[in-house]
Amino acid sequence: MVYPGAEVPVRAGLRTTDVEEARAFCRKLYYAPLRIEPVGDPGRFDFSADVVELGPITVGEVGYGTDIRVLCDGLETSYHVLAPLTGMLRSRHRGTVVFADPTRAVVYRPTGDIELDWPGNCRLLSVKIERGALERELDAALDQRVVSPMPLGASFDLVDGPGRTWLALVRLLLSELRGTDGLASQPRMAARWRDMVVSGLALTVEHPYGEEPAGLQGPMRPRTVKRVLDVLHTEPWRQYTAAELAAIAGVGVRVLQDAFRQHVGMSPMAYLRRLRLDGVHAELSRSDPGTASVSEIAYRWGFTHLGRFAGAYRSRFGVSPSATLRDPS
């Protein structure tokens, strides 16, 4: 059995002069509503991409060869960073225009439409991080309540400070994942590297909270709550009881429930259900409908009653699990 967290990298690459083929590739790997329109010399269209999916993150190096315009409706499911390696990209998102180049990355929150003017000489690193993964990382690792979507800044520096380190980490990860015999080829090692990319972005991007990490608010959580959160995030598929979680925390059931409601905003079991649902949603979104099974994925994440699971899934995401598997957009 392969447990969530031990991810196997999946590589996808394409080089083509066919616009429709490039569109289909990007819609499958990134967002179905994505629209790509050449505005430069169509004869110079030369799309090339080398992309690796690793659980909740998708990292790729992408270029088009000619000037293009990219339009995308609200991302909803993911945070996204574009970091040019060459050239300059003009981005408009949520009313803010950013010019990204090798000195500055552009950041997208999962809300609001996106418009890109992407010149032919611009080749960039594209980093997509599933919304739940970034928010859960802060939620668990930093002992803080986060707002959703997190109010991340529109861009960050790639030359100095943490942005330079984060970009170097992403480039090294992509290079390692392209190979077959590096450390990143080991699933557990790759998962740790993936987590560094996710948490590193949260601590790199600009935000309006002074020295506080982006999007954080609320008091530090007590140790009893942190112990239970650590366990739930480590093994979300296990069948816990309220009494077992209370024993892990070292307090009574009622005390733990009250502490969770105060510091997490819901009961331990409600938090576990949300964690599992987000995990199932992420896995369904990146699975092949020809080979994956909703029931198998649900069972792997700890859901034993498929009827109740389907109802809870629809309540959280507005669609059925099978609809997500067929159309992950």
TrEMBL record:
Outline the extent of the HTH araC/xylS-type domain: 226-327
Q: What are the alphabetically sorted keywords of the record? A: DNA-binding, Transcription, Transcription regulation
Note the SUPFAM superfamilies from the entry.
Answer: Homeodomain-like
Q: Which InterPro entries match?
A: AraC-bd_2, AraC_XylS_family_regulators, Homeodomain-like_sf, HTH_AraC, HTH_AraC-typ_CS
Report a single Gene Ontology molecular function: DNA-binding transcription factor activity
Keyword DNA-binding listed? The answer is: yes
Q: Which PROSITE patterns match?
A: HTH_ARAC_FAMILY_1 (PS00041), HTH_ARAC_FAMILY_2 (PS01124)
Report if keyword Nucleotide-binding is assigned. Answer: no
Which domain of life does the protein's organism represent?
Bacteria
Protein name, UniProt field: Helix-turn-helix domain-containing protein
Tell me the organism: Actinoplanes regularis
